[in-house]
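Q: Joint fold for the lines below.
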Amino acid sequence: MDYQNTQEFALALDEQDTLNKFSEEFLTPQHNGKDIIYLCGNSLGLQPKVAKQYLQDQLNAWEDNAVESWFVGKTSWLNYHEQLTGPLAAIVGAKNTEVSVMNSLTVNLHLLMVSFYKPNNNRFKIIMEAGAFPSDQYAVESQVKFHGLDPADAVIEVAPRPGEATLRTEDIIQAIAKNGDELALVLFSGINYYTGQFFDIAAITRAAHEAGAYAGFDLAHAAGNVPMQLHTWGVDFACWCSYKYMNSGPGGISGIFVHEKHFNDDKLDRFAGWWGYRHDKRFLMAPGFEPEAGAQGWNVSTSPILLMALHKAALDLFEKAGGLPVMRAKSEQLTGYLEFLIEKINAQKGSELFKIITPKDYAARGCQLSVICKTNAKAIFNFLAENGVIGDWREPDVIRMSPVPLYNSFKQVFDAATALSIAAGKFCF
Ligand SMILES: *Cc1c(COP(=O)(O)O)cnc(C)c1O
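A: Joint structure:
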């Protein structure tokens, strides 16, 4: 698209945008009596207005029927999760049976590694991206140590080439091939939280399988942001959180994907609990764990219904918006517009004051742009916040900005870039 650096152009794009009115479905914090420009959906999505009602409904069910709510009503708690798995399967490109909603993200990463990281003398290495989200690094280190291994031997990090900010798929694939005989697991994020790079999940999965290893993905920044086809791509397992692009509330419930090819593999270990037991016999309370078929068999504990209600409120809005493909089409334009405007500022100032490290290729990114500020980065970030533009800060000098198709407009992107341009005048010399 040919973008223009004018407010009229931004307003004209909003005019054409079928999701333009959708921001009214969300609660936006105020700044000087106006909606803030919230570009932080990569960290915590905004609250859907209907969330309170969904929560209230379950509090009412608890009040009215107490324990009976597990079994009565049109959305009995025992089956409540079934309303979530379908929409989630559509979002990540899975069969319904391959998805389960449970726990929180890092906990699920651990549980899935119990099943899919089974090092032996020959195969014990894990390949991951350098600069993975810290929780994932800690999870992997502790899993490796749990198996009596040294992370220095067992964990291989693939880093960008000198002078580059993001990874080349060919380098990832080469690292996988090079360590092939010793490789147990390839564990990547879907989108790197720091750079915003959307990895080629299909290519990484293929390379892992050619090496004889499993491929798993942490989709925290990808789920609800970019379309994926986990089933078709043959991904072995994945997990994600619901509070970033899926707007389901702070610390919201997480989801997992396990490919159906593993459903009947009784060699896979798992840390079991009664909620993963065969649903038809769970309440017989018999000894000896028998898993429910499918991803539900990885469940451990009783469904947290209140968190699930918040998740349902948010997923229903995804559906109302027309689904992820509709959102993605706008997202590409919205993020492309922000990129265009930032490059305009650099051109006007005659210097790359704001270096975008996120890939330019639309297929290699989602909503987020990660911007290195060459001078006075923190002052620029603070100036944006004081002027009602909320991005997020990553040490030492990166501002992440994620225009989100469900509640951000082209006009907001234009206004954010205007604030950035004023900040450049004030703080960049
Ligand atoms: C946000 C995020 C997490 C957070 O995990 P929690 O268990 O929900 O605290 C983990 N990994 C990645 C890649 C993330 O982006």
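Q: Anything notable?
A: Residues 324-349 form the longest helix (26 residues). The chain has a mean pLDDT of 96.
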